[in-house]
Amino acid sequence: MARANPFRFSTKYQDDESDLVYYGYRYYGASAGRWLSRDPIAEAGFTMLRQGRKNRRVEDEHPYLFGRNDPFRYFDVHGLSVADVGNMYATFVEKLTVMCICHMSCPEIGWLQNLPTAPYYGCTKQTEYMEDVLDKMHFEDGWDITVNYDTSNPIFHHNSVRVKPKNPDDPVVDIDPWKGCFSVTWPKGSTQKDFKRCFSCKELLKGPKKSL
Question: Quick one: which of 10, 33, 59, 123 has the most CB atoms within 10 Å?
Fold first, then answer.
């Protein structure tokens, strides 16, 4: 009866004949415990790990890693390894968790964060904090880290971080700690899939650590 349901490990589709699990961007061989192809974001992205980590492990440099070689703590939603975008995502989750603990952010209460009596930062301060964090990171490719000003609402303006790639084939990354959201938008014509994930403090403070 279990084989009647093809959606198994990591809730992804598994083919019984090939024993492969499809993640949208590449296939994972569950029996062998490895990917069948290299990281589609950037194969050279692992040089960042070699340059940026003093205490690196051999498995950190391997382009066929699954979930940082620790699938009990990490999951890989689309089959994308720890390259630039993956590191942005992991850093966002880590720092947003810190902001929740320190009462700097609470995405689930929305505009109540901006009340003068609230202990939380408004969207401007949260954006400045996240922008400063990203500015200090090392990336393999070129990225422009800017503040995105949303003036669509004439009364309440909203700020967030926008990371624009210098490589036209790379995606635009939007990071909004005030809303708790991380989104990836690929250029038109790309075969890659857009990605968006939003968190609440309640989820971050009680759930397992998340990763791409």
Answer: 123
CA neighbor of 35 nearest in space, from 4, 51, 52, 12: 12
Can you give the C-alpha Rg of the chain in angstroms? Answer: 19
Q: The whole model's pTM is what?
A: 0.60
Q: Which DSSP symbol is given to 176?
A: E
Question: Of 64, 109, 79, 89, which is closest to residue 9 (Cα–Cα)?
Answer: 79
Distance, in Å, from the CA atom of 64 to the CA atom of 129, rounded to the nearest integer, reads 33
- Between residues 52 and 105, the one the model is more confident about: 105
What's the DSSP call for residue 77? Answer: S
CB-based contact 114:155 (threshold 8 Å): no
Enclosing H/E stretch for 184: strand 181-185
Question: Which residues, 6+ apart, have CB-to-CB distance to 102 below 8 Å?
Answer: none
Q: What is the pLDDT of residues 124-151, one digit of tens each?
A: 899 999 999 999 988 877 889 999 887 6
Half-sphere exposure of 207 (CA within 13 A, CB side): 14
Closest C-alpha to 126, from 74, 194, 201, 211: 201
DSSP tally for the chain: helices H, then strands E: 4, 9
Q: How far is CA 53 from CA 26, 94, 173, in A?
A: 27, 17, 24
Please state which of the ranges 10-19, 42-51, 179-188 shows the lowest mean pLDDT.
42-51
The sign one gets for the Cα dihedral 42, 43, 47, 50 is positive
